[in-house]
Amino acid sequence: MLQGKKTFLRPLELDDIPIFYQWYNNQNINYWANAAWPLSTMLSEEEIEERFFTPQKDGSRYLILNEEQKPIGTVGYRDVNLPARSAVLFIVIGESDYWNRGYGTDALKVLIDYLFYQWNFHRLSLDLWDGNLRALKAYEKLGFKVEGRLRQARFVLGEYRDGILMGLLRDEYLEHHPPHPPQGI
């Protein structure tokens, strides 16, 4: 288990499927997470298991736990490019009571530290839609920089919206986030 200041990350377990079922079938969560509502809602538990709990060759997904070990979201990486030492990150805080309280930023920092310090990744990237300003601010706080826009790449509630591409290089991150020894649990 990896620990941050406010969060813990642990691998997924099959017992987590019901909580993913709640999160990924919640219109509000899907709207902010990927602007895909209502297209990505109404997944069955079997579809949740296949989509999120099947081992991937090029990435991993973790459960985010709060200080009391309550599941509040998921974070992970995909599209690993070993020669370039890069990956694409993603995060969803599935419990809206934990929005705007620093839990997502903390969990993402734990994962970034893990990938840069333990796995020696060189570059991490992520994407979001232009209406999710809360996520944009959180990513910028960690050092991500806007690298581009995908014009009208998302269709949200009847209108086309831009996708935003962001990137973070290891050297830039190390300048502002020096490594620190793990804290005891």
Any overview of this molecule?
By secondary structure, the chain is of the alpha+beta class. It has one domain: Gcn5-related N-acetyltransferase (GNAT) (Aminopeptidase). 30% of the residues lie in helices and 33% in strands. Strands 1-2-3-4-5-6-8-7 form an 8-stranded mixed beta sheet, sandwiched between helices. Strand 4 and strand 5 form a beta hairpin.
Please write the string of helix (H) and strand (E) elements. EEHHHEEEHEHEEH
Strand content: 25-35%
Radius of gyration of CA atoms, rounded to a whole number: 16 Å
Low-confidence stretches: none
Name of the CATH first level: Alpha Beta
Q: Quickly give the CATH architecture.
A: 3-Layer(aba) Sandwich
How many helix segments? 6
- Work out the helicity level: 25-40%
CATH topology: Aminopeptidase
Pfam families: Acetyltransf_3
Protein name: N-acetyltransferase domain-containing protein
Domain N-acetyltransferase: 7-171
InterPro entries: Acyl_CoA_acyltransferase, GNAT_dom
Entry summary:
With 185 residues, the chain is α+β, with helices and mostly antiparallel strands. It has helices at 17-24, 27-34, 45-52, 103-118, 133-141, 170-176; strands at residues 2-3, 8-11, 60-65, 71-81, 86-93, 123-129, 145-156, 159-169. Helices cover 30% and strands 33% of the residues.
